[in-house]
Write a structure and sequence with these properties.
The chain is α+β, with helices and mostly antiparallel strands. It folds into three domains: 3-310, Beta-galactosidase, Chain A, domain 5; 325-538, Aldolase class I (TIM Barrel, Alpha-Beta Barrel), CATH 3.20.20; 631-739, Immunoglobulin-like (Sandwich), CATH 2.60.40. Helices cover 20% and strands 30% of the residues. It is globular, with a radius of gyration of 27 Å. It binds (2R,3S,4R,5S)-2-(hydroxymethyl)piperidine-3,4,5-triol.
């Protein structure tokens, strides 16, 4: 069992072939952090690695010590892992070791998404119980280590066994004290249509955080941080990744202290949180996942990808190849009729599309974004035979049918608002802020979630629907719930997201055949919490292929490409005005779940035949494109080119994207990954996508795995770039049986 407890040294060692995590009970009874990183042999003691743990006496300045779940108010002046207010108003706690259990398997967390183990042999769990005598508070720290992956899932449970109510003001999912600060921090930042831009910053003394206070995880930042050694890159070096399975207000913070140590914390954002713990009540934090890599960032990403693809996503779509879809949004926006949709669907079918998705504008009287959210009945002006009639006609063509919904929202101009104005979130007596002309429903209220469940279930059950796109086009303002007592309003944001998870859980259980895709104006709520319900998501409203290189690369730090839709849209692109070749747009969209977002009735015969070829090519290789191990071979911040590789047992597919053309520049050596050094590979170029003659003559043919990984492909070796700006190529690398001499 990869969790060892030594009674004498009171050390807990969680280990496998790729990771060690050591904590111990200090003589004071509090729990100290000893080590986290590359695997160490499970021998008796490593206490000497921890200053506080080895000396016997705790340094008078507790800020020197490394604590596992630091408390407030007894001398550790760094940011605490939790904050509690007792009935007498005091805020000091001193939780000490109480007991522990170690068992095979992994627990779930009530009401919250979490990783799972399919078999008990896959994971082992340590439950470490701390107790603060004066308040009667128990804190149970959960650690699950996966047998084959350098990953630990953590969360905390607070139980009030005291005599008085308590108030939790902060409750982190993970706190980790690292002994040094020789790291650089990676996070992603952005805005609507510009999500997932990778930001690298030094660790400096003081607190550096990414967070959300918007009610959704947000376009601006995403609930993860990565610490990497300064020299580490995609292919080598040490890195630690921390990701939170949560879709609401989060914080991921690193505090550099005056002793050059670092404290990492992830959890619900305490700026917008408090929770009343009545006598006997308990509170569970969301789950945080820690991943270690000694082999660079691509490896770190693969561990997250494996976990999120295989042990977070659930249901029949977890492992299934995802359909190629056509979404009508950029093709028609709100302006469509049934006739128009059927014409689009019929051409889409000819081109090889498998799923037709009807986006916003099908319900109430919604001709623009100013009305009808909440009125989930078909607009018979546009759809005379309703959703059922349209869906039947589309499925009769041999296509699957998908539908867009935005269930958490309500328009001021809607029947629902006329009937239930108090269902919209707001503070009585204050104006409500509108965003995109809409309000959000109070999803913390059970009766509202029940109502939405019934209405949406009725639509889904009424028609042959096999896909739902669940959108959320505004964040929360004026947070307040009429259903919460004044001293419980701090619970609002967390209860909102618990309501969303509850609705997702009920709908995905009721309709297990449906593929759910999450969306929030693009990537406004693309996070691991959502992936537990919707195995794919829309990471950005930006469909420009050049922008997508950066966005998909940023998302891939933590998320697998099976988790994002990637669409080919019309040019000039609607977000950037840029024109790129159809082949370039397709080659970028291949690395993800391919879709189209345009009006196929406007395509020329030549474009149609190109798209049909692209779809055919994608379908034969989608297992690799969607589920293959993804490698970032060249950084998206290079002005010259980006490159990705997706590898499966069958083949490796390499996408090489040249950005701005420049004559007479030095050739590029693109080193591939994940091949067997001693094996021989047939290298070919995807001819239908177009290619530079020189790139073909220099690279295609039989090549050794060692050669492809060490010397690489030789690209862009012509002095004149004939293809101009934004030109892509796809290499297909297949192993051949013969061995190199
Ligand atoms: C925002 C989404 O990201 C788009 O794809 C589209 O569904 C619109 N909302 C519809 O309002």
């Amino acid at each position: 069992m990869p969790i060892k407890f030594d009674r004498e040294t009171k050390e807990f060692h969680l280990y496998n072939h790729a990771l060690s995590y050591i904590i111990k009970t200090l003589y004071t009874g509090s729990v100290g952090q000893v080590y986290c990183g590359a695997p160490l042999a499970p021998r008796r003691t490593y206490s000497f690695l921890s200053l506080a743990a080895s000396g016997g006496v705790l340094h008078p300045d507790k800020s020197v010590a490394r604590f596992e779940y630091p408390a407030f108010g007894t001398g550790d002046y760094r940011t605490p892992a939790f904050a509690l207010q007792l009935a007498d108003g005091s805020t000091v706690t001193e939780p000490v070791y109480h007991s522990h259990t170690i068992y095979a398997g992994k627990p779930t967390i009530p009401g919250l998404p979490s990783l799972y183990a399919e078999h008990n042999e896959e994971a082992d769990t340590l439950e470490l119980k701390l107790f603060d005598e004066l308040s009667g508070l128990y804190i149970i720290l959960y650690y699950t280590i996966f047998a084959d992956l350098p990953a630990i899932a953590r969360h905390s449970r607070f139980v009030n066994e005291g005599k008085e109510p308590l108030v939790l003001r902060k409750a982190m999912s993970l706190s980790l004290d690292l002994p040094d600060n020789n790291w650089r921090m990676l996070s992603v930042s952005g805005a609507w249509a510009r999500e997932f831009q990778i930001i690298e910053s030094p660790l400096i003394p003081g607190l550096h955080s990414v967070k959300s206070g918007k009610g959704n995880s947000g376009h601006q930042q995403n609930p993860f941080v990565i610490l990497k050694r300064p020299a580490a890159d995609d292919s080598s070096g040490q890195a630690l990744g921390f990701s939170l399975l949560y879709s609401g207000n989060f914080i991921a913070a690193v505090e550099g202290d005056c002793y050059s140590a670092s404290r990492v914390q992830l959890g619900v954002n305490d700026e917008t949180f408090s929770w009343k713990l009545e006598k006997g009540a308990s509170f569970d934090t969301p789950e945080a996942v820690l991943v270690y890599s000694g082999n660079g960032l691509n490896h770190l990403s693969h561990v997250f990808h494996t976990l999120y693809q295989r042990r977070l996503a659930r249901g029949i779509w977890r492992d299934r190849e995802r359909p190629v879809l056509l979404n009508n949004w950029e093709g028609t926006y709100f302006n469509f009729t049934e006739q128009k949709l059927l014409a689009m669907a019929s051409i889409a079918k000819e081109l090889g599309v498998e799923l037709f998705v009807l986006d916003d504008g099908w319900f109430g009287q919604r001709d623009n974004d100013a009305s009808s959210l909440g009125d989930w009945f078909a607009d018979t002006r546009k759809l005379p035979s309703g959703i059922a009639g349209l869906a039947e006609k589309i499925t009769a063509m041999g296509l699957q049918f998908g539908l867009w919904i935005e269930p958490e929202m309500i328009s001021k101009k809607s029947r629902l608002f006329e009937q239930h104005p108090d269902w919209a979130i707001g503070v009585p007596g204050r104006p409500r802020s509108e965003q995109r002309n809409q309000y959000a429903l109070d999803m913390s209220r059970r009766e509202i979630v029940d109502y939405i469940f019934t209405v949406i279930s009725d639509i889904i059950a009424s028609a042959p629907i096999s896909y739902i796109k669940w959108d959320m086009n505004r964040s929360i303002t004026e947070p307040f719930s009429l259903a919460l007592a004044p001293d419980c309003q701090g619970e609002f944001f967390h209860r909102y997201i618990l309501g969303v998870y509850d609705l997702y859980e009920r709908l995905t259980r009721a309709f297990p055949h449906i593929l759910f895709e999450s969306c929030a104006g693009g990537g406004g709520r693309f996070d691991p919490g959502m992936l537990a319900f919707a195995p794919q998501g829309w990471i950005s409203d930006n469909t420009d292929a050049v922008e997508r290189l950066r966005i998909q690369s940023g998302a891939s730090l933590v998320y697998p490409q099976s988790s994002w839709g990637s669409h080919v849209s019309a040019v000039p692109n609607h977000q950037t005005g840029r024109t790129t070749a159809l082949s370039f747009r397709a080659m970028v969209a291949f690395f993800g779940v391919l879709g189209f977002e345009l009006d196929p009735t406007t395509l020329s015969p030549q474009e149609k035949s190109q798209i049909a070829m692209y779809i055919e090519f994608y379908k034969t290789r989608r297992k690799t494109f969607q589920y293959g191990r993804l490698f970032r071979l060249a950084a998206p911040d290079s002005a010259l080119f980006t490159a990705w590789q997706a590898s499966s047992e069958e083949e490796s597919l390499v996408g090489f994207y040249k950005l701005l053309a420049q004559p007479n520049r030095p050739p590029i050596r693109l080193r591939l990954a994940d091949l067997e050094p001693d094996a021989l590979y047939a290298v070919s170029l995807w001819e239908q996508g177009g290619f530079e003659e020189k790139d073909k003559s220099c690279n295609c043919g039989l090549r050794g795995g060692d050669e492809l990984m060490q010397a690489g492909l030789l690209l862009d070796a012509t002095s004149i770039t004939k293809q101009g700006d934004f030109f892509g190529e796809i290499f297909i690398i297949k192993k051949v049986e013969e061995q190199t001499p």
